[in-house]
Amino acid sequence: MRHASGPMHAIACRLHVDETLAAGAAVGLDAPRAHYLRHVLRLDAGATVALFNARDGEWAARIDGFGKGWCSLVVADRRRVPAPEPDLWLLFAPIKRARIDFLVQKATELGASVVWPVFTRRTAMARVNLARLTANAVEAAEQCERLSVPELRADATLEAAVAAWPAERRLLVCAEAGAARPIAATLADIDPTVPLGVLVGPEGGWAPEELSWLLGHPFVLPVGLGPRILRADTAALAALAVVQALRGDGAGRPVDRGAAAPRCDPD
Ligand code: SAH
Q1: Parallel, antiparallel, or unpaired for β 57-67 and 70-80?
Q2: CA angle, 225 as apex, 219 and 226 as ends, to 5°?
Q3: What is the mean pLDDT of residues 76-93?
Q4: Domains of the chain from N-terminus onward
């Protein structure tokens, strides 16, 4: 079935591109995306897609042509202007493949601006595949109508991340053990202009000496997420949702669906 059966101007898909977007600009897509538009969505030259990035906003673009492994488009009208997005960092101990992909996708949907894998004492994974995680973040941003893609930081040890931590940013350490105030109570006491990060431990939890070392830093606040022990991915997403609801963009609304591009999802 042909996807381009709607009106000429219907938006078939939403794609993040790094290139500058401006009326009349030409944009080329790499082979996987060209393949996706041509052979998965079955679009023809003349079909319209949406291209976006945080710098230039979202633009309609017309497919100019396809070749072997490429697709060229011409940018037409702007559909959305760039807008500020929440400044909320997520640091987490790498977990196994299916769960880490899930975590990065969902953190993107929940509006994390920085996603930073950090190795803790009990982290079971030896390495992370940043390219794959970035691809997950891009796909989730395309799907959820974000204009930005979260910055995927190169993995670091917890010590290095803490050493590089900007002093003005508070770090909410999700602590399954020891003293910790509820996350909502902690947030109520933090000036709304203070930027935040959330840190979640590995499936094995915090080593006691690691947690007490963390709590010795002036920017660190231990927070509790309730009486149940959550899986690491659940804890990260719960914390992000609470922060967005209480002091992030949780009061915002999705863009008007009439003007929005449909999902661009191979599933
Ligand atoms: N294996 C550990 C649990 C680790 S849960 C144990 O059995 O105790 C993984 C991470 O999720 C924790 O390190 C913590 O950062 C977070 N987490 C899970 N449940 C939590 C809770 N109730 N409150 C705060 N953080 C929690």
Answers
A1: antiparallel
A2: 140
A3: 97
A4: 11-80 (2.40.240.20), 88-247 (3.40.1280.10)
- Cα(225) to ligand 1 centroid in Å equals 9
Q: How far is the CA of 157 from the centre of ligand 1 (A)?
A: 19
- Vertex 54: Cα angle to 192 and 117 (nearest 5): 70
Q: Is the C-beta atom of 235 inside 6 A of ligand 1? A: yes
Which structure tokens are listed for 220?
């660190």
DSSP string, 111-151: T-SEEEEEE-TT---S---HHHHHHHHHHHHHHHT-SS--E
Cα(144) to ligand 1 centroid in Å equals 28
102-125 pLDDT, tens per residue?
999 999 999 999 999 999 999 999
Place of tokens 């290139």: 19
Sheet of strand 11-16, all strands in order from the earlier edge strand to the far edge? 11-16, 48-53, 57-67, 70-80, 26-29
Tokens 């979202």 belong to residue: 58
- CA-to-CA distance for 131 and 8, rounded, in angstroms? 35
User: Residue 130: exposed, middle, or buried by beta-carbon count in 10 A (0-12, 13-18, 19+)?
Assistant: middle
